[in-house]
Backbone:
């Protein structure tokens, strides 16, 4: 099973110290929120990230799966006859 990418948004702007706690995620801050983007192997890892966020007292406002691009299908070889 391949990893899935999730985005989790919580209230408030993450400062340098808070961002350091999520150095395994891509962190984007907005005017009133912060979004973490992480590639996770399974739902257990997602739950662990949620627990880390909630455990430091942050309020999660959104969690969603980022649409993955479809895997390219192998092209059928086109053989030309003699």
Residues:
């Amino acid at each position: 099973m391949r990893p899935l990418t999730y985005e989790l948004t919580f209230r408030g702007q993450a400062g340098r110290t808070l961002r350091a706690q999520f150095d395994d995620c891509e962190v984007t801050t907005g005017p009133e929120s912060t979004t973490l983007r992480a590639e996770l192997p399974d739902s257990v890892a997602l739950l662990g990230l949620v627990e880390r966020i909630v455990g430091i007292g942050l309020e999660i406002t959104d969690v969603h799966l980022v649409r993955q691009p479809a895997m390219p299908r192998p092209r059928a070889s086109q053989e030309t006859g003699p």
